[in-house]
Structure formats: structure tokens, C-alpha cells
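Contributing: when you submit paired examples, paste them exactly as shown. First protein:
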Amino acid sequence: MTFQEGRPATLPEDFAAQVKPGSGLAITALVLGVVALLLAALPFVSLIALLLGTAAVVLGIVALARRTAGKGMAITGIVTGSVGLLIAIVVSFMSVITLVLLGSTAGQAASNSDRRMVEETWVNIAPKRYAIRIVVASDIPVTVRYQAGEGAQSAEADGTWYQDFPDSVLALASVNVIPQDFSVVGSFSCEIFVDGVSVAKESGSNFVSCVSLPDLGK
């Protein structure tokens, strides 16, 4: 190294060539790799580790390619970043699967709950249905005029006759029994059942009538 009067001191060219650039990239790769490795195993946070691990690997490779100082730190950053990246991929995949399963389970539970609510609501608001049976017994030919939730109808009977109405909205029914020939003496009866329970019964020889009325208190 020489000094000349009036000129600033300068470094020899061979010495300046030996000075290596800074190790900032290697240090950054190392820090990002370590952080990625620490965060990789945490569910959902592993998504951040994916980015940090990728950045650590890229910066470590760049640092090695530029032959910067801190080769060991660059390699360590690549290793830790790669391991953190792999762990983060697995954990992130499992986290997504868990979310999907939880969403499916919650959706199924909500669907079942909604269905039960609809069924319960329908049971509460749906009108009650009644099973009605009209029975006529006679020892002579008779004409039966009856009605239960529909228009009046008629039929002929000789012996035992019955008619079912299994799905009536009202427990309301009526039946009239008259002989086909008033000159013939005989006996006959009528009876109305609602849900298997007898609610009206009459008998006679000229004319009988049975009527069931709905229980408005129910």
C-alpha cells in the first residue's frame, strides 16, 4: 500500500477483489426458514408457514448463487424452509379436510334440525283426522242415507251394512235408515263410530237416525 502526497490513499485492486458482498440474503433465508418451521405445525397458521418456507428456500438459493457471505446460514435457511414447507403442506391439507368435514356435519345437523322443526310444526298446525264408520243392521230391506265429510249418499241394505271414512277432517257424520216397504214390519238400527268409539246409536222399526257431532273442545 503506497501513499502519494496530494492524493487519497487507495486499496490495492487484489485486496478489494477479496472483499465479499454482505450476507443479508443468507440471514433473511435463515430467519424465514426457522419461523416457517415453528409455524408449520400449527393448524391454519401453517398457511403462513407455506409462504415463509417458500421465501426462505428462494432466498437461500439466491444467496448461494451469488456466492454471498454466510453460505452456512443460506444452506440452513434452505433446509429449515424446505422442512417447514413440507410440514405446512401436510398440516394445511389436514386443516382443509377438517373444515370440510365439520361443515358437512354442521350442514347435516342443521338439515335434520330443520326437518324436525318442519315436522313438529306440521303436526301442530295440521288438522286432526278422524276414522269414521257407519254401521246399519236390519232384518228387512232398508234404504240408508248417510253423510260424513262428503255429499249425501244412499245405499240399500238387508242385514248388516257398513261404510268407512278413514280420513275425515271433522268427526261429523249422520245416517238415516228407512224401510223400503213400509208395509213390511221389521227392526233395524244404526250406529256411528269415531276412532273406534261408538258415539251414536239408535234402533227402531219405522225410521231411525244417528248423528255424531264434532267435539269442538279438542
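Second protein:
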Amino acid sequence: MSASSESRRAIKVSKKSGKVLVDWDQVINEVSTSLQWFKSQGVKPTLRSMFYRLYSLGIIGNTENIYKGLVKQCVHARKDGRLPIDCFADKRRDSSDGESKYESPMDKIRLYYRIVAEAGRIYMQTFPRWYKQPEYVEI
């Protein structure tokens, strides 16, 4: 690691306790700088892509705890105005068409009732044509 990237590194290990210490103010400053870079590229990053950018720049480590810390710190920074509130793209995976439709518990019960009611018919369609025939003809 070069001297310049070492000075940008926001993680230090405590000599006393051996714990990993993160300078979150420095990380948020780097997030702000990286947001400008992403904008110049015409991209609105996800928080995960920001995490990997910071890791690739040597600013933070690639651990689950540091990722969770970044999420928490970015929430605080967005709330207190250090980062724009809408600075990250939200590409959730919970809906394929981008719109979610409310389904009542009764709608769900009806759906699963139909699935169970049709299960026998669908199951029988998966058997070979000659299943349970008294004679098996092979050509």
C-alpha cells in the first residue's frame, strides 16, 4: 500500500486493545467525495456499491461489521445533512416490477387454498402416460 493510500485509510488497530477503530467522519468525507465521482460518471450508486468502492480504495476493510457500520453512519449523515437524503439508489429485490400490491391475509389464504386444491391434479400430470396401466408396451 502506498503512503498516500495509507493516509486515506480510515481504519486503525488500537495498540492497547487490538480492536479495529474506524474514523467514521473520514469515511463519510470519502463517501461525499465518491458521490461526486459517481455523479460525474452519470451513476447513482447503491450503498453496497459505495462500500465496495471504499474498500477498493483502501479506505475501509471488507467485513460485515464494517458494512453494517457504514450503513448506520450513512443513515446518520443523511439525517444530519452531511450527505444528501437521496444520495443512494434503492434497488430492492422484493418486487419484480417495482410496484408492490397489498394482499390481505384472506387473499393469501385463498391463493394457497387454490394451490393446495390443484396440487393433486398437477401432481398426477407429472406421471408418465403408462403409469398404473396393466400392460406396459415397449417398442
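If you have annotations for the second protein, write them as plain sentences, like these:
The first helix runs from residue 3 to 8.
Helices lie at 3-8, 24-40, 47-56, 64-79, 105-125.
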